[in-house]
Amino acid sequence: MPTLRINSYPLQQLRSEMDRLFTDFLRELPGTRGGGFFAERTFPAVNLWENEGELYVEAELPGVKQDDLDISVVGNELTIKGERPNMEQEGLTFHRRERGTGAFTRVLRLPTDVDPTKVEASLRDGVLAIRLPKAEAAKARKIQIKAAVPKKV
Amino acid sequence: MTVETVVKQPEDALTRSEPTREGQFYRPNVDILENPDELQVLVDLPGSSTDAINVHFEDGTLTIHGRVPPRQTEDTPFLMQEYGVADFFRTFQVSEGIDAARISADYSDGVLRLRLPKAEAVKPRKIAVRGG
Fold this sequence. Notes:
- The structure holds two protein chains of two kinds.
- Chain A is mostly beta strands.
- Chain A is built from one helix and eight strands, in the order αββββββββ.
- Chain A has one helix at about 10-20, and strands at about 45-50, 55-60, 70-75, 75-85, 95, 100-110, 120-125, 125-135.
- In chain A, the strands form two sheets. Chain A has a four-stranded antiparallel sheet, with no helix packed on it.
- Chain B has one domain (about 5-10, about 20-120): Immunoglobulin-like, CATH 2.60.40.790.
- Chain B has one helix spanning about 5, and strands at about 30-35, 40-45, 55-60, 60-65, 80, 90-95, 105-110, 110-115.
- In chain B, the strands form two sheets. Chain B has a four-stranded antiparallel sheet, with no helix packed on it. In chain B, strands 3-4-6 form a three-stranded antiparallel sheet, with no helix packed on it.
- Chain B is elongated and about 80 Å long.
- Chain B starts with a helix and ends in a 15-residue tail after the last strand.
- Strand 1 of chain A pairs antiparallel with strand 5 (about 80) of chain B.
């Protein structure tokens, strides 16, 4: 089974430019190879889209409960922070371990400012959906072009 | 249902070549754990639901299919797209003898948890040694 190759990740460049991120995704068993999450890999992966008045951010966070998740917005930066608990128990051995566990933090620089008081987030079946209404000043506004008045010569 | 006929499995679950929804599956990450009584399989299936998941066990082959309804449309104006939304599919060969009748599954927070109890015959058993 092939492991995930970071350097073939197509959006790596774009992502580094668009967001500053800090990921600390601990792996509980040192020396275990395991596919899936490595220290440099960003978690969670996000999708971002917009319409005229809002930005939408979606991320897949299976196994993360609402209480283990922290979302905050400052200016145009969205921080998704949380922890996926370890399922290890006494007497349990791993045959395969692909699902990372531990703490994660991801900071996204959003393309426009948003109104932090109006941000809504929901977590359902492992999918986090965040709706961020754009700040009034950031909304595109049509500019009227006045006809120039010809100068008298 | 044999895997070869139906499924195209991308090796990298995050491959971002634009998927058409028909016939494109993502391979979910799993943890497989074992204790003396059972195997446990944890499968990441975000965005699915209990009635959209199909688990099949036959002749030592475990097959997991999680249907995922689309959450964005084809013309969603993405600014960033790091993952796609499509069904999940994965199969495993399970080497242990499993008591298929007692397999149980539950799904919460986007994670499918399967418990596969080992058949009595394969559980490690102490053999009493009689003196001669």
